[in-house]
Structures are given as structure tokens and as C-alpha cells.
Fold this sequence. Notes:
The protein contains one helix and two strands; from the N terminus they run ββα. With about 70 residues, it is of the alpha+beta class. It has a domain at about 15-50. Strand 1 (about 15-25) and strand 2 (about 25-30) form a beta hairpin.
Amino acid sequence: MHWSSPPSMTIDPAKTYSATVKTTAGSFTIALDAKAAPHTVNNFVFLAHQGFYHCVIFQRVIPGFVD
């Protein structure tokens, strides 16, 4: 996948966003801080909707590593 320009801003930085990641080792939810990093969250949401993260391999899975 390749894009010639960044995606247009589609999120509302005032709202709260999260993403649930499903893996063969289980699922986890991450908080997306749109107020602190609106462009990063917008890019993540755009790429997720495009299927960019589908079948991405996690190199290391350590239970309880990040709280």
C-alpha cells in the first residue's frame, strides 16, 4: 500500500478514541490520545480502515509487559 499524501483530517481531536487489536495470542485495547496527537491518531485510524495492519506480525508478545 502506498499513498502520495497524508489523509485528510477525519477525526475530532476533542473525542476519545480506542482501538482493539486482535491477535492469535489474544486481544488488547489501546487508547488513542487525539487531543495530544491528532495527526498520529488520524493516520492510525485511516490506515486501520484501509486494512494496513491486517496480518501484521508482532515480533514479541510478553504478557504484562506494558500496563
